[in-house]
Amino acid sequence: MTTTQRLSAPQARRIALAAQGFADPRPTGRVDARQLRRVLARIAILQIDSVNVFCRTHYMPLFSRLGPYSRDALDKLTAHTAGPVRRELFEYWAHEASLVPVELQPLLRWRMDRANIDAWGGMRRVMRDNPKLVDDVIALVGEQGPIRASETGIARPARVAGQMWNWHDGKIALEYLFWAGRVTAARRINFERHYDLPERVLPPEVLAVPTPSVEDAQRDLVRIAARAQGVATEPDLGDYFRLPRADSKARVAELVDAGELVAVEVDGWRAPTYLWPAARRPRRVTARALLSPFDSLVWFRERTERLFGFRYRIEIYTPAPKRVYGYYVLPFLLGESLVARVDLKSDRQAGVLRVQGAYLEDGADPYYVATELAEELAVTAHWLGLSEVVVMPRGDLAPDLAKAVAG
Question: Any bridge partners for residue 5, and if so which?
Answer without folding.
Answer: 264
